[in-house]
Specification:
The protein is of the alpha+beta class. The chain folds into 3 domains: about 90 residues, TATA-Binding Protein (2-Layer Sandwich); about 120 residues, Hypothetical protein, domain 2 (Endonuclease III, domain 1), CATH 1.10.340.30; about 40 residues, no CATH class. It has 15 helices and 7 strands.
């Protein structure tokens, strides 16, 4: 059987290699395998696990499934996922025009131009990752995620490499907090993730329900969830709902990047960070993402 290929058109600016640099930021990442020129992602197509290789190909990306039967419906689902994952429908040219007028953002967009805000198309994954990362180091958060995925996710081995999908809410909803404790989850984090899984399984929480809501409504609904505070809600709006105005004003990485670029030794106040955010209003999420990117190798 011949490989199946799916071409995805992307409007410039778009630099796939900048995106791959972000995707390779942790050696412990379990949800994809990224190299210098490609990323492999395991897609769950209604219970059928299909491995796709994503590469740059003018005028955008090509997704290749080796010797796999992929229906037109599957192709549409994959394209939708990839577009959300790489935020391919965002008018990033407008952000770059703004950045060129901004002393803080100008050098960032010139160095990382074409980088898209890499997200989480799956709401449960976005929420779980946000909760996992609360009040611990990023490296330990990746370790916890790997343990969680390898125990409750689905997998497929291809050419000696095991690829994973994120656990489904219905698989997590039946657990008790004790099931996550031996993986070093705190009791509270275990309760929060299982509680969200139960809401999603019961149909009281879904991305589809929230898509038609305003950013303010999405924020309020997310804050109703146990374990979700302002930072997590802002993060999920950024990374799952492609809300370019979301601004995690208290984020430690954001503060660290601002201190570095502004050459500040003292701690920035939330009021100062909010004031800085007003200078790139409308693109707070992208400014935050580029500032996070600037930490690699600098701080």
């Amino acid at each position: 059987m011949k490989p199946t290929q799916l071409m995805i058109t992307v409007d410039p600016p778009f630099d796939f290699h900048q995106c791959l640099t972000f995707l390779r930021r942790s050696e412990t990442e379990v949800m994809h395998v990224a190299t210098d020129d490609a990323v492999w992602k395991l897609f769950d197509m209604n219970g059928r696990l299909r491995l796709g290789e994503i590469k740059a190909a003018a005028p955008g990306l090509v997704v290749t499934f080796e010797e796999e039967e992929i229906t037109n419906e599957d192709k549409a689902d994959v394209e939708r996922y990839v577009r959300e994952w790489f935020d391919l429908d965002q008018d990033v040219a407008s952000f770059e025009r703004l950045a060129e007028t901004h002393d803080l953002l100008r050098p960032l967009v010139r160095e990382y131009g074409g980088l898209r805000l890499i997200g989480f198309p799956d709401l449960f994954e976005a929420l779980a990752w946000g909760i996992i990362g609360q009040q611990i180091t990023l490296s330990f958060a990746y370790t916890l995620k790997r343990r969680f995925v390898e125990r409750y996710g689905q997998s497929r081995e291809v050419d000696g490499v095991t690829h994973w999908t994120f656990p489904r809410p219905e698989s997590v909803a039946v657990l008790s907090p004790g099931d996550l404790r031996d993986m070093q989850f705190s009791v509270r984090k275990a309760e929060y993730i299982i509680g969200i899984a139960r809401e999603m399984t019961a149909g009281t929480l879904s991305k589809q329900q929230l898509r038609s809501c305003s950013p303010e409504q999405i924020q309020r609904r997310l804050l109703e969830l146990r374990g979700v505070g302002e930072w997590t809600a802002d993060y999920v709006r950024m990374k799952c709902f492609q809300d370019k105005t979301a601004f995690p004003v208290a984020d430690a990485g954001l503060h660290q990047a601002l201190k570095y670029h502004l050459e500040r030794n003292d701690k920035l106040t939330l009021e100062e960070v909010r004031a800085i955010g007003e200078s790139f209003a409308g693109w707070e999420a992208y400014a935050t993402f580029y500032l996070w990117r600037s930490l690699y190798g600098n701080v």
